[in-house]
Amino acid sequence: MCGIAGIIYSGGDRAHEVGRDMTRMLQAMKHRGPDSTGYALYRPAAEGYVMHVKLAESNGKADFDLEGRQRRQRREVETRMRELGARIHGIAGKSDHAMTVTFELDGDLKRLADYVEDVRGTEVLSLGRSLEIVKDLGDAQTVAADYGLDEFVGTHAIGHARMATESDVDIANAHPYWAYPFPDVAVVHNGQLTNYHGWRRRLERAGHRFQSDCDSEIIAVYLAERMAGGDSLEDAMRRSLGELDGAFTYICVTEDALGVAKDELGAKPLVLYESDELVALASEEIAIRKVVDREIETYDPYEGAVMVWTR
After folding, report:
1. Do 30 and 139 touch, CB atoms closer than 8 A?
2. Domain shared by 68 and 167, yes or no
3. Residue 2: active-site member
4. pTM of the predicted protein model
5. Which domain holds residue 123?
6. Which listed site, 39, 51, 203, 264, has its alpha carbon 20 to 30 Å from 98?
7. What digits encode the pLDDT tens for the residues 138-184?
8. Alpha-carbon gap, residue 1 to 173, rounded angstroms
9. Active-site choice (1, 2, 175, 288)
10. Last residue of a domain, one of 84, 103, 128
11. What are 49-78's pLDDT values in tens digits?
12. Helix (H, G, I), strand (E, B), or coil: what is residue 122?
């Protein structure tokens, strides 16, 4: 089932309360996915990079040294980043099992991410100049409160309310997915890819790695690889409709754009609203009405549709 949402504002780098607005949209679709909630949020362009790292999670049993392991992970992540030449500006962590690092680096981002992930029990959830992915168990209000997301100001965002159907209820299998190791590309998805295993083998042979068994992660890496090869976001998304099989609707975001694609069956719902101020889209109209305080007209894109907006 699941619920997906996206919002992008007009006005270039002008910041908006995107964390608050995305929380309202996702909370309105809590009934579509109560297991976990995730955000891909884009801050205004800034110097340097931001990296969001997941630390050890509780396994649901007695874990007497969990806090100690998390402290050791934080120290090791910071040490490894400095070893590779990162100039760290700040380290934050409103959740015990996550840390957000802002830094500058002249070297290879993939090498840095790989080295950080060699710390046992850690996962780099996002890395880029603008993107920050936050995802955790619970509904949108719970996750937003835990991470202070109502205070996040930015330019655009996507989100996902997940009902676990084919994989575990944990953070690793929550959406959105970053297109590792491509900076600032993320995806949320409602549906299923029927040729998932073939594409995973193909992308792994090309040198990509995956942190989950979720087919949505395939979409993110597929699109980013096409764009790294010279395709525009829209061209990559159009190509995906011919190469990714299944019934799906997905939303992809980059540093300056938001796009949506529906497969040729058009079975997975999506409602769209456009104005001079913003574009908002979601699995249900009720989510859009939570952020637009007037009477609106929405529509459902046709099957096989690909649409892209830039800020």
Report:
1. yes
2. no
3. yes
4. 0.91
5. 47-128
6. 203
7. 999 999 999 999 999 999 999 999 876 666 667 777 889 999 888 99
8. 15
9. 2
10. 128
11. 999 999 987 665 556 788 899 999 999 999
12. coil
